[in-house]
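Continuing the series of single-chain predictions for the mutant panel. This is the parent chain; the variants come on the following pages.
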Amino acid sequence: MKTYTDENGLEVFDENLFRLKLSAGYYVFVTESLMKKINKLETKFLAEVRQVLRDNKEHLIGEDWTLGYPDGKQTIFHIELARFWGVIDDLIDRARPEMPKRVTVYKETEERIKEVFGDRR
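Parent structure:
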């Protein structure tokens, strides 16, 4: 991949790159052309998931949440979203693939970034 040098003298990938989540805490950067392919697959997959949900509505409960403070500790309580039960199809239709955001990716070491910008941890 081509790179360029930015105004700080840092080498940057000259490509539209997207941060794609693989699992909790694990990401890769992908090119725009690959991201478009992945997005098409996610769209197809999500359409199939929506159909399975529609075909099995008796197994669904709309989700809501509220905060409580048992023993002074903030806790999230997951509760039935009863007021929306009549429009479960609307909830299913809202499911959309999440397109990762475009990010600037530096072809530099962590030490070089800290050298230019300082250690901000």
